[in-house]
Each structure stands twice: as C-alpha cells, then as structure tokens.
Amino acid sequence: xxxxxxxxxxxxxxxxxxxxxxxxxxxxxxxxxxxxxxxxxxxxxxxxxxxxxxxxxxxxxxxxxxxxxxxxxxxxxxxxxxxxxxxxxxxxxxxxxxxxxxxxxxxxxxxxxxxxxxxxxxxxxxxxxxxxxxxxxxxxxxxx
Length: 144
Hints:
Elements lengths: L1 E5 L4 H13 L5 E2 L11 H14 L4 E6 L3 H7 L7 E3 L3 H11 L3 E5 L5 H13 L6 H11 L2
Parallel strand pairs: 1-2, 1-3, 3-5, 4-5
C-alpha cells in the first residue's frame, strides 16, 4: 500500500498528487487531512503515516509539508522507516536505489506540481539496488 499525508502546507499538492496518480491507475491512500486547517501540526500526520510504514515494510509513504524537513524528521524516528527528503527525480531515484527509502518527503514550497509528479513517479518506480554494500549499510541502521 502507498499512503500519502500532509499538513496544511502540503494540502493542495497532496490532493493534486492523489488525483494525478489515481488517473494513472496508482491508488494512494489518503491519511489526511481531509480538509484544510491552517492551524494543524505536521507531526500528527507524519506519525500516522510512519506507523503504517513501520508496521509493514511492503508499505510506502509520501509526506508533504512546506519544506519537507519536519515530516522527514518525525518519520525517521520510527524503527524501520527510511524517509528521504527529495526535490527531483534523480535524487528520489538515488534515495530508493542506494538507501531503500520507504517514505518520500516532498517540500511543497519548493516544487511545482509537475516537478512533484516527476519526483514521486521516479521514486515509486525505482527499486532498491540490493547491492551488497548497500545492504550492509542498511543492516547497520537496524541496531540504532
């Protein structure tokens, strides 16, 4: 399952991505917010999504806030979560290929809608390389 969530700063972009990817036949499960609330707090939404990814390593997630940092910081506090803040397709591919990121954090204030689509699409279609050195590095994270 692919989950998506945002705070108020990423609300419009989240809704755009949901529609765009559903039109392409990719279902993103919306974990909220369902309505714009300019007083909401990003940790509330990042926590819910990070829990979903942490409980099943097959799950993936997309988090969106104004600069992407807050969401990625919260998500990375969960065991088994590897959230990557990305702003372009090449960077997003690298985060999947090298680090097996399972959450993509997007900075809504720094991406156009089309850049966000291209970045997300690149992230979704790129597999983990499985290279021995990359696996070794990920194993070291498990003890933290």
